[in-house]
Structures are given as structure tokens and as C-alpha cells.
Amino acid sequence: MKKIIVALLTGVLVFVSPIATQAAVMKEVVTQKQNVYSKPNAQGAIVGYIYRGSVIKYDSVSKRTIYRNVNGYLNTGYYLAPAVTGSWRAAVVTADALNLRAQPNASAKIITTLAGNEVIRVNIGNMKNGWYPIAYNRAGNWYWQGWVNAKYVVRVDGFGYDSLAQFSNL
Fold this sequence. Notes:
By secondary structure, the chain is mostly beta strands. Helices cover 12% and strands 43% of the residues. The strands form 3 sheets. The protein has a 7-stranded antiparallel sheet, with no helix packed on it. Strands 8, 9, 12, 13, 14, 15 and 16 form a 7-stranded antiparallel sheet that branches. A hairpin with a 4-residue loop joins strand 4 and strand 5. The longest helix is centred in the first third of the chain and has 20 residues. The protein is elongated, with a radius of gyration of 20 Å.
């Protein structure tokens, strides 16, 4: 009986282990400049930088980042926006400054002002009259409130890896 139980447990471990240890490589957008280190947890040398708006490959298990010729570890994942999560998409503000409104209209109360090239998240499933409900990042915390006019943002979920989503008004 003991041999049967050991054999069953061994069989289960063979099938479950690869699933539990698989890396979760995702397309992410950097919300603010990040140092990239040669070792995890900022214990290594800085091997490069990744700038706001960079579309990267990010392994959420190992914290390894790959962007162009920079390959290493981020000290934090707080400043990343997943390119796609359900109906939420990463986007970048194209205006020099964009008012975040309490309601989906231009006369609604202003909650805050978003900077040009700021990385936000927009909910494409709940757009109303050309306005997206959004989330924005302040000091590593996401705030899920407010509305922006869609004509002042560009979604970056369709951008390829190693892209840089930054815009300027010429």
C-alpha cells in the first residue's frame, strides 16, 4: 500500500511541478524610469535603464526584464502596467497635460492633471461618449478613478516589444 501511495504522489509531482515553476513572461509598459540590475533585489551592478513608456518582456516570477540590449532585474514591479489585463489596456497621454475628470465630460470636476507621456491604464469595455475610465500610478500605487477623453491617449497594447511609447507635439 505504501508503494502505491508513493508512486501516485510521484506521478502527481511530475505533472504538477512544471506548471508550478513556469515563468510568467508578460508584455509590460514601464510607468517611470527604472534601474536594471545584474542580480535580483538590487544587489548587483546597474546594467542599464529602462525609460517611461518602454514596452518590455517581464518575467513576474524571476523579475528578469528584457528590453532592447538591457537584460537584468528590476528592483520593483510597482512601476509596471500590463499591456493587457481583461478589458484594461496600457496607454500613454499624448497631450502636454491632461485633466482627469470625475465624470465622462469636459465640465466635470478635475481630480488631477496627468503629465504628457504618462503611462495609464484605460478600460476599453466601459468607454462612454469617447471617454475612458482609467487607472494612474502615483509613487507605485495605482488609483482606479476618473475619466479621460480618448483623443488624448494612445493605447500601447498593440506596440511590439522593445517599443518606446513617447510622444511630442511639434
